[in-house]
Predict the structure.
Amino acid sequence: YSPDFIREKLDYLHDNPVRAGLVTKPEDYLYSSARSYAGLDGVLDVVQIDLPWITY
């Protein structure tokens, strides 16, 4: 999988609270890792690990 493919899926997940009408921006949802990606504090600790992606 490419980094763009992974980012597309992550964006889709982060947008779920917005589509559900819970917040107006993904980073506004307290229980989302979108907060970490936006540089905000949240209840989740997100650790980014850079690993090589293997494609078949």
Observations:
- The chain has a mean pLDDT of 88.
- The chain is about 35% helix and 0% strand.
